[in-house]
Amino acid sequence: MDKYFKPLRRKDRALKDEEALEILAKSNYGVLCVYDGNYPYGVPVNYFYEDGFIYVHTAREGHKIESIRSLDKVCFTVIGSSEVVASEFSTKYESVIVFGRAEILQGEQIKPALRKLVQKYSPHCLQEAERIIQDHLRDVAVIRIKVEHVQGKANR
């Protein structure tokens, strides 16, 4: 365990890294957390995960981008599934927390990531998406997060 990342308190609920990455890959929404020097900022986002990187579509300017420019360390969280079990005063869940470093991709280097986002969320619109990607290329960016540490947890 790296000195920066604390072990899970409930070791009995810890997932192996491979299973945590599977949950990360299959989930649809995550929360990207950045720090601007004043307050932490978490924002729900669409994303995809591939080969040790998380990709998030965003505008070229804004709170996320400004925060990453000042500090590239980020946290990304997903909840793969959850179900309240009221009679047991409990919740069944699976979740993943990723720690990593973010960089901002722009211009032509973002096209492959935008195409993969379309494949994940709108696979029936691939041809139309190509036109939209080209029309808006100068207005968008992609945040690419290199996964440095992953923790998965579940109560099933």
Q: How does this model look, in words?
A:
With 156 residues, the chain is of the alpha+beta class. It has one domain: Pnp Oxidase, Chain A (Roll), CATH 2.30.110. The chain contains four helices and eight strands. It has helices at 17-26, 63-70, 111-121, 126-136; strands at residues 14-15, 29-35, 40-46, 48-50, 53-59, 73-85, 90-105, 140-155. Strands 1, 2, 3, 4, 5, 6, 7 and 8 form an eight-stranded antiparallel β-sheet that branches. A hairpin with a 4-residue loop joins β6 and β7 (90-105). The model has no long low-confidence stretch (mean pLDDT 91).
Please outline what is shown here.
With 156 residues, the protein is of the alpha+beta class.
Q: Using the CA coordinates, give the radius of gyration.
A: 17 Å
Protein structure class: alpha+beta
Based on Cα principal axes, name the global outline.
globular
Mean pLDDT, as a whole number? Answer: 91
State the CATH architecture.
Roll
> Helical percent range?
25-40%
Taken together, the total number of domains comes to 1
Number of E-type strands: 8
Q: Approximately what portion of the residues adopt beta-strand conformation?
A: over 45%
CATH class: Mainly Beta
Number of helices, where a helix is a run of at least 4 consecutive DSSP H or I residues: 4
What is the CATH superfamily classification?
A: Electron Transport, Fmn-binding Protein, Chain A
